[in-house]
Write a structure and sequence with these properties.
alpha/beta, Rossmann fold, five-stranded parallel beta sheet, Response regulator transcription factor
């Protein structure tokens, strides 16, 4: 991103509070990111997308209430320009994300470092 590029609005969706809070803090410290909102499940994510219109959604794939696949599909149907980075520790998560490429724009394993997640965000933004 160049200095003339606008800062990104990011939505972090994860059912684990510590993950949400940690990512919100880490991402909010980045100069390329202007705001970071959070949601704890896919249903709440859809509501937050309507309200905040993020540029990028960091989406856990396995959550209660509504999983990341269903939420991502709903978001992409209404807002195809919003980029979605699947963020999962599930076995086979990356393979599923690749096979569902029309829904997911990038994948980052939860075991990866913060820099890897930032690179995934920048690659789709």
């Amino acid at each position: 991103m160049t200095s003339s590029t606008k800062t990104l609005r990011v939505l972090v969706v994860d059912d684990h509070e510590l993950t949400r809070c940690t990512l919100q803090l880490a991402l909010s410290l980045q100069s390329c990111i202007g705001s970071v909102e959070v949601a704890n499940n896919g249903k709440e994510a859809i509501s937050k997308v309507h309200k905040y219109k993020p540029d990028v959604v960091i989406m856990d794939l396995h959550m209660p209430v509504m999983d990341g696949w269903s939420a991502s599909s709903a978001i992409k149907t209404e807002y195809p320009h919003i980029k979605i980075v699947a963020y999962s520790a599930a076995d086979g998560g990356k393979a599923q994300a690749i096979s569902n490429g029309a829904i997911i724009d990038a994948f980052c394993d939860k075991g990866a470092c913060t820099r890897s997640l930032l690179e995934a965000i920048k690659s789709v933004a």
